[in-house]
Amino acid sequence: MTPQIAFLINQALQSLSVGNFKTAELYLGQALKLNPKNTHTLRFLGVVAAQQNQWEKALDFLNRSIKADPKNAIAYSNIGNVFLGLKEYSSAITNYEKALTLNPNDAEAWSNKGNALATLKRYDEALEQYDRALALNPQYAEAWSNKGNALATLKRYDEALEQYDRALALNPQYAEAWSNKGNALNEIKNFEQALSAYQQSIVINPYQADVWSGVGNSLTELKNYEAAMAAYEKAISLDPQYAEAWSNKGNLLGQLKRYKEALACCKQALDIDEGYVPAWSNQASYQAEMQDHISALDSANKALSLDASYAKAWLNKGSALNNLSQYADAIACFDRAIELRPDYADAWANKGVALYDLLQLDESIQCCNKAIEIEPGHIEAHWTKSFSQLMLGNFDEGWSNYEYRWNRKDADQHPHSRITPLTSLANLSGKKILIWPEQGYGDILQFARYIPKLANMGADVYFEVQEALAPLFQGQYPCNVIIKGSDTQEIDFQLPLASLPLLFKTNLNSIPTDVPYIQVNPSKIAEWKNKLPLSKEKLNIGIACSGNINFDLKHGNKRPIPLAYFSELAKQHNLFLIQKEIRESDQETLQNLDMIHPLGELINNFEDTAAIVENMDLIISIDTSLVHLAGALGKKVLVLLSWCPDWRWLAKGSTNPWYPSATVIRQPSAGDWEAVMRDVKALV
Description:
This protein folds into 5 domains: 1-70, Tetratricopeptide repeat domain (Serine Threonine Protein Phosphatase 5, Tetratricopeptide repeat, Alpha Horseshoe); 72-137, Serine Threonine Protein Phosphatase 5, Tetratricopeptide repeat, CATH 1.25.40; 291-407, Serine Threonine Protein Phosphatase 5, Tetratricopeptide repeat (Alpha Horseshoe); 432-504; 522-683, Rossmann fold, CATH 3.40.50.2000. It has 35 helices and 10 strands. The strands form 2 sheets. The protein has a 6-stranded parallel β-sheet with strand order 7-6-5-8-9-10, sandwiched between helices. Strands 3-2-1-4 form a 4-stranded parallel β-sheet. Helix 5 (73-85) packs parallel to helix 7 (107-119). The model has no long low-confidence stretch (mean pLDDT 94). TPR repeats lie at residues 39-72, 73-106, 107-140, 141-174, 175-208, 209-242, 243-276, 311-344, 345-378.
């Protein structure tokens, strides 16, 4: 090489070191004119092109460099880097091997070969390459960091963190190692330390979109949602084509229940990179939240067609199938997710849900226990386990796990968290205690039986209820009935109504069954007796075939029974439809069954409903507030249950400890309402 060419190459390298590609190309172009076959000039032109992602141009120069000098090992290594950039990993490995055949002491080539192998998920081989690189150059910080990445992918996080620390000890200004350390800390849920590592990386280089996205992930887990959103926005502003940042922003929006916006972020990610598997998988999750389970299944299948080893996509596919009542297929998907990730607590918990839906309660508990063993605070596992335990009558443990409802992602905000919670029944005399509603009308009617028990302990009870229930409970118990949203400034303690069974340590043998525990004003009963077209010859039967339409949609419409099933009963008896909402299909049935009297538009509140119930000879209803009201009034009621009912009806039996006047009729198999109605006909 002539001194003039050496000078020009040196000038080019100085320009390249500050990212001035055009100036570097000018110097190298001048050198090339002096000697068009100089292997070094050609190689550096290839390197400059590669750094600008001009892959074809880079390969042309590098191949010309090798033609000029077939033993140019570093040129083969550079070609490997180009193929790495093109995601042609096998070709990259081939060229690294050629480089290492010519120069087995090239630590960088060993490390880069390791990167290619790691991308192909050949992690054990990758680790061997990193070790070869480090044996040659123990001061090679990048190889330490790359080795850490491979170990982190293998979930060997403690070892990975050791490698990152080795890299940072060698080069404290190594921004990527700080970022990688943050990623590993995120994976082991050490979010505050992860955030600290990311911030170190940002101090060194504030223009890394991937690091800002990592910051967003940490902040999301720390529930600092506003700051997390700002971090994702920063990542996207730095690189609008960064699919992962769009997907992660969608994940945050999903946690905030802003599902339409979350789906829009998934679309952005997939417009950028149609093959980005996490975005397809996340999209499935948000579609499921919007009750679009068919689309969710399609999205999960798309994710798996791209990467059949992506455990989260198997989880989301299983969830979609479970929501479509395809339980066996759902369980197979959860099993596949567990096979891929034996420590995948979410997969174990979701399998527990599917087994619960199949009424395989002991097996469901086992799966939930496995999830809890992996992740002791796993909210959904405790929540699902509580249902199985309560349905089996194991109230001692069931009530405790039932408290996890407050930590669920779709839990309502605690409206009275500023007031001290009631944790003991001791020394209640004179204390002002707020008992407030958290769930549906049926739950309030079921657990209202505890209010007089609390008042009899000397407590000054404030019973908060919805406006529709207030007239019914006004004057019912020795307590103050207040409307939801009333001022509660002077209260000493508070407790949600459904936590009272835990406070009273209720078991199957100690359920308060002083029925009736709700009384109806005789004048109100008489008022409705005059309003209703009651029959003296036939049984007057109050019925309900569906409840809250949105609730039923969210739960797969397993609870409602088509009104048409009551047509035969309507020919023999005097039927009254006691429900506010009527499904469209049932409205059509009503038009053809003029012997059923719809009362929904006449009912103003639950005092009206209770008076109507008292005028009936019998109530026949699915699991809505009507059966709870009838049970609380001591009225004879037939409860029509789907295959997997709510926990309060227990797993089997035709009687129920909460309501002595109730007869429970269960589907013998999923969806079999015909068998249920045969039993109804026999009993009536």
